[in-house]
Amino acid sequence: xxxxxxxxxxxxxxxxxxxxxxxxxxxxxxxxxxxxxxxxxxxxxxxxxxxxxxxxxxxxxxxxxxxxxxxxxxxxxxxxxxxxxxxxxxxxxxxxxxxxxxxxxxxxxxxxxxxxxxxxxxxxxxxxxxxxxxxxxxxxxxxxxxxxxxxxxxxxxxxxxxxxxxxxxxxxxxxxxxxxxxxxxxxxxxxxxxxxxxxxxxxx
Length: 204
Known about the structure:
- The chain is mainly alpha-helical.
- The chain has helices at residues 19-24, 42-51, 67-89, 95-105, 132-148, 182-202, and strands at 27-28, 36-37, 111-114, 125-128, 156-158, 167-169.
- The protein has a single domain (8-202), classed as Jann2411-like domain (Jann2411-like fold).
């Protein structure tokens, strides 16, 4: 019996160039009126934390996440998005969002610990926290604080695809990147352009 094909929408896009932008991307298609929630349950948040590499070297591949942790993560995510968007547009930052992000950034982060040297030098390092999920989100919030308050903010862009709301850090040499990814929206734009030119040529 074959397994159903994975839903491409459910996959986490790690193309923002910063942890905070990748986390904001866990809510997709914001501008369509039909946003897609990539964090529908605690297990999804645990999976995002693992895939984001925020627990590299941890004893457990997946952290315990409660319903309360999930609600907190979603609230933080939306505050992060509004702060970044306001900063990009030169608008005043919402005090409630600033307070939310500052509170998250001030929480205890993951602490590096030495483990048993049973698998080589890299196995010595372990990351631990009393509450791993909020600790990893503290890392995300601190990344957002540094981005919004730093010079790299000018390089944050929104994907040029009107159906896509992903934000990304333009690290291209010419600073002319238009798409969140050429494999995603960039390729769609190329296909749409080709079809448009083909239709135009056929009507001549």
